[in-house]
Each structure stands twice: as structure tokens, then as C-alpha cells.
Amino acid sequence: HSASTYSLDILYSGSGILRRSNLNIFQYIGKANLHSSQVVIEAQGLEALIAATPDEGEENLDSYAGMSAILFDVQLRPVTFFNGYSDLMSKMLSASGDPVSVVKGLILLIDHSQELQLQSGLKANMDVQGGLAIDISGAMEFSLWYRESKTRVKNRVALAIVGSITVDSVFVKAGLEISAETEAGLEFIST
């Protein structure tokens, strides 16, 4: 009984340069909802790169591009791709094309151990562990030759749960092991 939705809002300047890209992913479980992730890429003052006319009131803005993210309703540290024209040129000449990671980590969701007394008098040991791996990254590329910009947002999530129940007696040892894992990824590219 769960569903996941996403939305992507893109705002361009009058000259067709990306101004803001906003990707939201919501998770609905029963009647509860969770803002599982939001990745926002913002840019300004890039019209000089393609000899375009800036929008009214934005003639003297410094070149800037950055990214911020929300993960499970928690605001993460923003990332700046470049700030100023000289910083942009130095990063364009030395860029590897690899996305910048906003968050990458492993979260322990459950670590439970319990001893159960069975009606037969035997004791069963139950152990359950579960983890979540997250990788959110983004990139912004510019081509002065083709006069275009490209943004790329990658979201990857993997969930793994392992568990076991063992019954240990003097004459026999029996058990049951379970494991489940899933991985999902979304990549949004806008040019």
C-alpha cells in the first residue's frame, strides 16, 4: 500500500537559459506521506556566455550556479558549481564531466534482535537488519560552441533487509533465513 510520485519543474530565462530546475519525489505509505527528496539547481547571469540579452532587471547579475537538496524532509548543505565568471571558466577548462554528489550514505533502518519463547518450550532467536543506501548527485554542463546548457540530476536508492529465526535445542538446530533487496534510480536530463 505505497506509492511514489515525482514532479519536475523547469524555469528558463527569456533567452532560453536554465534559471531553475526543481525535482520533487514524494512517498505515500497508507495515509502518511513523506517528502523523500527534492533537488533544486539554480543558475543566474549566464546570458553573457551565449551573447544573449538578459531579462529586465538582471543585467548586472554575477554568474552563478548551484544545487541544494532535501532528503527525508531534512535540508542538506547546498553545493555551488561556480560563483563568478572567472570561477566558471576555470571549472569549464578543468571539468571532468562527473556529477557532483550532494549526499551519499548508508542509513541503518533496523537492527533488531529478540528471543521468543515458543509454546513447545523451545526458544527461538530472531535477528533482523535493514539498511538504505542513498546517492543524490547533479551536474551542470555548458557548451560555448553549441550555445547550450545541460543539467543532470541522478537519484539512486537501494534497500536491503536480512533476517533469520533459529531454534536451537539439545538435539536439533533449525532455522529460517530471509533476505530482500531492491534498487531504484531516476535520472533527469534537461538541455
From TrEMBL:
GO MF annotation: an example: phospholipid transporter activity
Chaperone keyword on record: no
GO biological-process terms attached to the record: cholesterol homeostasis; lipoprotein metabolic process
Main localization, broad class: endoplasmic reticulum
Domain of life: Eukaryota
UniProt key word Endoplasmic reticulum: yes
Domain called MTP large subunit lipid-binding: residue spans: 2-191
Protein name, per record: Microsomal triglyceride transfer protein large subunit
Cellular component, GO, one term: basolateral plasma membrane
Keyword annotations of the record: Disulfide bond, Endoplasmic reticulum, Signal, Transport
Any Pfam family: MTP_lip_bd
PANTHER family the UniProt entry points to: MICROSOMAL TRIGLYCERIDE TRANSFER PROTEIN LARGE SUBUNIT, MICROSOMAL TRIGLYCERIDE TRANSFER PROTEIN, LARGE SUBUNIT
InterPro entries per record: MTP_lip-bd (IPR045811), MTTP (IPR039988)
Location relative to the cell: Endoplasmic reticulum
